[in-house]
Amino acid sequence: MNPGNILLILTILLLMACTNTSDNNATNISNQEMEWFEKGSWREDLSMQPDETVNIKELYKQFHLKPDLWRKAFTFLSEIDLESLEVGKYELMGDTLFYIIDEYTSRDESETRFEAHRKYADIQYLISGEEKIGVSSLGGAKVLEPYDELKDIAFYELGKNNYRLADQNVFFVFFPQDAHRPCLKAENNSTVKKIVFKINLD
Which of 22-31, 32-41, 55-64 has the lowest mean pLDDT? Predict the structure, then answer.
């Protein structure tokens, strides 16, 4: 075979491999993991749906490592009158599981940054209002502010944005490898009320 053709084929195969591995939600998900995810009992009768960006493989792994924490968070989300909750931080199981209620005005893109955590996973849900959330893997990220262990957060710049609409129909789950850029205005700057569960992964 012509050496030029061999090089072309190898390049195509390499590009395909890179494309597949960059999508962390479609990487090597087993039938067992997918069946568990689609069955949905892990959501504890939650009516809203997980966003397409949820990393199924990582969710399956972390859920089964600490099922009590995840079940408690999803049960709370499905049973509590979220509108009645006041702004603040509240413990459900000490520092291993707590939630934060926040109210703010969604922001312009120039006022937001990508962030990621190391100790905690996030479950994010908009109680009212709507916003966009940028979602990306951390690959190729430029550090804007290094990791703050006390706040469990670092800030990044990423060239790739996958903007998702967050409203009352969907929730998001972010793991340490998931960079996310919340609080972005959807069409107009508007008032948002959000609940964020923090689940300790240590």
Answer: 22-31
